[in-house]
Amino acid sequence: MAVDQERLQNFMGRMVGEFGVVASAALIVLGDKLGLYRAMAGQGAMTSDDLAKRTGMTERYLREWLAAQAAAGFVEYTPSTQTYELPAEQALCFADETSPVFIPGFFQVCESMFRDLPIIEEAFRTGKGVGWHEHSHALFHGTERFFRPGYATNLVSAWIPALEGVDEKLKTGASVADVGCGLGASTVLMAQAYPNSTFVGFDYHEPSIRYAREAAEKAGVADRARFEVAAAKDYPGRDYQLVTFFDCLHDMGDPIGAAAHVHQSLTPDGTWMIVEPFANDLTEDNLNPIGRIYYAASTLICTPASLSQEGQMGLGAQAGEARLKDVVSKGGFRQFRRATETPFNLVLEARP
Question: CA of 175: how far to CAs of 201, 235, 288, in Å?
Fold first, then answer.
């Protein structure tokens, strides 16, 4: 097979950049866990000694970590003073968990991806699934920290108002089921915004439910937000005015069965809000930077989760609106539309 040498060299140049991305991911996780970004935020120029005094960490390790951060362009280095500074823009990304652009949670998810490679490798060989509960704990907390900023920015201000009549119902007082709630970020946010409504978060993963209960207590909403262990096809309760699924429908082995259960749990005028990763319907239209991220997550997390459950539908994180509409319609819903979107999310509305 003939090899185009120029094309090969261009590709290898790109791969050098990929090497740096992968290696930097581990250092981002480290900097987040050790509080290094938070220690640098708003402090101006610092030497490695300054950072060591501020964090209690060993200077020699910090010196190397800082140099790596500078080489990656995450911090700015001044040779004349041998100081490093975390700019305000990068501080929003690395140090402020309330920021809509906070990113360390994603790299925590990547930590889980590497930790869990042995069980994923076995799944590739056997065809068996890998349940959410079988992954490293880094996945549970990383996912919550990754999605929470986007939910905090969009959920109450844009997504719920895009649904027909739902914002008004919640302000007056409605009953809401948040299915696949994980650590409870979405449930708590809604409970904070709508004090007249009641919320119950369901997830089959008991450790996540325990964490969600603690989160509700800390947020002061435990009086109107409770959490129970239950799966999407059998969570209890009827006459919910709103049921929400945040980034979880595609993970389910039998999403049609889940849709049917949602249908029977809603009031006749109720609404099902489905938030899914943004995707076009055709594979070729998802071959872009966002699709690259979601296909990777789908390979290592989402598709294995679906294949571990009854039904094994394996929708994947890039299912697209047409396939999701088909699932929802087969579950008994007659009305379906895209209510709104972001570059990372599809927000879908289904009504009986």
Answer: 11, 14, 39
In angstroms, the CA 89 to CA 289 distance is 21
Domain boundaries of the chain, sorted by first residue: 6-94, 104-351
- On whether the CB atoms of residues 314 and 252 are closer than 8 A, the answer is no
**99's tokens:** 């920021």
* Tokens at 220, concatenated: 């002061």
CA–CA dist 87, 159 (Å, integer): 31
Angle, in degrees to the nearest 10, between helices 5-33 and 104-115? 110
CATH for 6-94 is: 1.10.10.10
Give whole-number Cα distances, 185 to 153, 213, 341, in Å. Answer: 12, 11, 20
C-alpha atoms less than 13 angstroms from C-alpha of 53 in its C-beta half-sphere: 5
What does the alpha-carbon distance between residue 42 and residue 55 come to, in Å, rounded to a whole number? 15
The per-residue pLDDT string of the chain (352 residues; one tens digit each, 9 = 90 and over) reads 899 999 999 999 999 999 999 999 999 999 999 999 999 999 999 999 999 999 999 999 999 999 999 999 999 999 999 999 999 999 999 999 999 999 999 999 999 999 999 999 999 999 999 999 999 999 999 999 999 999 999 999 999 999 999 999 999 999 999 999 999 999 999 999 999 999 999 999 999 999 999 999 999 999 999 999 999 999 999 999 999 999 999 999 999 999 999 999 999 999 999 999 999 999 999 999 999 999 999 999 999 999 999 999 999 999 999 999 999 999 999 999 999 999 999 999 999 9
Q: What is the DSSP letter of 298?
A: I
**Which tokens is 148 given?**
């929470």
Cβ atoms of 227 and 216 within 8 Å: the answer is yes
CATH architecture of 104-351: 3-Layer(aba) Sandwich (3.40)
Q: How far is CA 298 from CA 144, 226, 339, in A?
A: 17, 30, 24
Check: CB of residue 36 under 8 Å from CB of residue 65.
Answer: yes
